[in-house]
Amino acid sequence: xxxxxxxxxxxxxxxxxxxxxxxxxxxxxxxxxxxxxxxxxxxxxxxxxxxxxxxxxxxxxxxxxxxxxxxxxxxxxxxxxxxxxxxxxxxxxxxxxxxxxxxxxxxxxxxxxxxxxxxxxxxxxxxxxxxxxxxxxxxxxxxxxxxxxxxxxxxxxxxxxxxxxxxxxxxxxxxxxxxxxxxxxxxxxxxxxxxxxxxxxxxxxxxxxxxxxxxxxxxxxxxxxxxxxxxxxxxxxxxxxxxxxxxxxxxxxxxxxxxxxxxxxxxxxxxxxxxxxxxxxxxxxxxxxxxxx
Length: 293
What we know:
Elements: H1 2-33, H2 40-58, H3 62-89, H4 94-117, E1 132-135, E2 138-141, H5 142-164, H6 166-176, H7 178-183, H8 188-213, H9 222-236, H10 241-261, H11 264-267, H12 270-281
Antiparallel strand pairs: 1-2
């Protein structure tokens, strides 16, 4: 039993790190743009398919696919912002319209992935040497440990960017009070485009990590990660990137530990129980931060 618990903790940290990146990229969008991106999961899975194409067609290993996905999705996000978001600003209710518009985007993206890759589940047949490594008394897949290391590096880099650089501080200020930073002379449109592109880049990188950690993915997997992203965002606090990082890890640990103590069918509802409980008892999220709207 002790080995099962330890295995659940290790896998919970690995999966939780991925959930944290899924959530933080979505919370950046909502915090800065007040955009409810219902297509976020499709962006993530598109990153998985990009890694699959790079490896199967060009022999690019998953580690090299990480920076490629970041650059490709950053550029795509920057362009997509100017195609979609300015039209929302002219709406009477931008948040509701963003939900409806991105719901349509999610359907279109899933249909495009289905057209390109069909409904079959795909996997990246890439193995590290050694295949597994010993962590205390248990053995963990090297691919999962590599994914955890990348997640930690990306999280630290993101934290340093948000707290130590001028653009990062501007993003945090935009989350707290977008009107005030415009008075200070910040170009909110350009900053919003950067936030959208950064969120897309994080989604693409997360998709590559998902292809490493999980055995398979398909064009319909996006909806699952959209739900996970919303759970993490609500649990961490709306618009709070640090809260999303913490919430993702806690959610991953709770989900993996539930598989140890509960039947498989019951373990799958843990995320929804956590979401409902958070809304009821701490609607501002686990950090309890309320941002000015």
